[in-house]
Specification:
The chain has 154 residues and is an all-alpha fold. It has 2 domains: 1-34; 36-147, no CATH class. It is 84% helix and 0% strand. It has 5 helices and no strands. The chain has helices at 2-34, 36-60, 66-93, 98-127, 135-147. α1 (2-34) packs across α2 (36-60), α2 (36-60) runs parallel beside α4 and α4 (98-127) runs antiparallel to α5. The longest helix is centred in the N-terminal third of the chain and has 33 residues, at 2-34. The chain is flat and about 75 Å long. The termini are far apart.
């Protein structure tokens, strides 16, 4: 009898401890299924930024350290996940106003993508001797990142 109570108690404790992780994985899986292109583009931008940043700091700046490299990657992933979560929460509360929600989700998702993408582009820009991407594009992206306005200011 004691053995059976121990097994039940152990099973309950393990279930209680694992349930938040199972919930998070399930929620992530459902979000990924319905938003896979968005998720893959953001994760792809993080990977490209990581590779370009590693190359830039190793070969051009010559200040590469594995600790800074891994720390920077973890910080970027955590920031992107946190902001994406908050933005998706905001979009959820706007779901009753469909036109506002569509525009808001588009802008917010674009800003989540631009965080790692702009970092990767700046690394490429520096590695190419400031030739690629063209400075005009870099300025437009930087300006959009500052004020979220698309119109031409020239």
């Amino acid at each position: 009898m004691k053995h059976m109570l121990f097994e039940i108690k152990t099973s309950a404790i393990v279930s209680f401890l694992l349930s938040p992780f199972v919930y998070l994985v399930n929620t992530w899986e459902l979000f990924y299924i319905s938003n896979n292109t968005y998720v893959e583009l953001v994760l792809g931008a993080i990977i490209v930024d990581y590779v370009m940043g590693s190359l830039y700091h190793f070969f051009w700046k010559r200040d590469f350290t594995l600790k800074k490299n891994i720390t920077g990657l973890m910080i970027k992933i955590i920031l992107v996940l946190a902001v994406a979560f908050l933005y998706e929460g905001l979009a959820y509360f706007l779901q009753d106003v469909s036109s506002v929600q569509s525009i808001t989700i588009g802008i917010l998702r674009l800003t989540v993508f631009l965080f790692p993408a702009l970092s990767a582009l700046w690394n490429v820009y520096e590695m190419s001797g400031k030739k690629f991407p063209p400075i005009g594009i870099m300025n437009k992206i930087t300006q959009f990142n500052k004020d979220l306005k698309i119109e031409d200011k020239s």
